[in-house]
Amino acid sequence: MSGGKLVLFSGPSGVGKDTLLELLAKLRPQLQRSVSLTTRKPRAGEVDGVDYFFVSPAQFQEMLQDGGVLEFAQYGDHMYGTPKKPVDMWLAAGKTVILKIEVQGAEKIKRLYPQALSVFILPPSMEVLEKRLRDRGTENAAELEKRLEIAREEMRKSVSYDYRIVNDDLQRAAEEFLSILDAAETT
Ligand code: 5GP
Questions:
Q1: Does pTM top 0.90 for this prediction?
Q2: Intra-chain end-to-end CA distance of the chain, in Å
Q3: Residue 85 in this model has a pLDDT that exceeds 70
Q4: Which of 21, 29, 93, 147 is most exposed by smallest CB count within 10 Å?
Q5: CA 59 to CA 80: how far, in whole Å?
Q6: In angstroms, what is the span from residue 83 Cα to ligand 1's centroid?
Q7: 23 contacts: CB under 8 Å, gap ≥ 6
């Protein structure tokens, strides 16, 4: 890795990663967030090129074959991947780059870039997570069940992350994240 720092940002579905990332972008506008590719359909309010690059399975395969994807993983019934070129460019320019990524992808990146900082966002409890996901109402019952199952597995794997932050209060969690980042940048 060149000048910049790569940050792996993981956490179970419904834990509030996007809300936290939005707040972090306000508190620290120079943070560079990578926009992933996904084959899932956009949720209401999600914008192509901002939240994700929404692509077809065929387009996803094409990018994989062209070597344009840094890492990818299947999550539920869909594929997710990190476009390689922008990440290389940002790191070369010395930026701090945040990848919102599930645990398999994070493991792959840790092998490629051992200096990457990994942070896992935890819910205050499994009950809170389940309620948040249900209240969000963006998944049908079967998808929701699948996400909860993945969440339990991800939370077991979260012990291998460098840091774990409980998202009990958004502002507090954001401040904790920034202090971790600042400490990592001065080492
Ligand atoms: P969602 O469908 O809720 O937006 O995302 C599902 C999961 O995919 C989340 O855990 C999210 O962090 C993860 N994810 C998003 N983009 C990527 C990516 O580029 N690579 C990998 N491995 N996971 C991703």
A1: yes
A2: 15
A3: yes
A4: 29
A5: 12
A6: 13
A7: 170, 171, 174
84: helix, coil or strand?
A: helix
- List the beta strands (DSSP E) in 34-123: 37-38, 53-54, 69-75, 78-83, 96-100, 117-122
**Average pLDDT value over all residues in the chain:** 94
d(CA 91, CA 160): 24
- CA pair distance 187, 159, nearest whole angstrom: 22
Probe residue for ligand 1, chosen from 36, 48, 53, 71 as the CB with the greatest number of ligand atoms within 8 Å: 36
Q: Do 118 and 124 touch, CB atoms closer than 8 A?
A: no
pLDDT digits over 88-109, tens only?
A: 999 999 999 999 999 999 999 9
Bridge partners of 83? 69
Nearest atom (ligand 1) to Cα of 34: 19
Determine the Cα–Cα distance for residues 153 and 155; give it in Å rounded to an integer: 5
Q: Per-residue DSSP letters for 99-142?
A: EE--HHHHHHHHHH-TT-EEEEEE-S-HHHHHHHHHHH--S-HH
Structure tokens belonging to residue 103? 């645990």
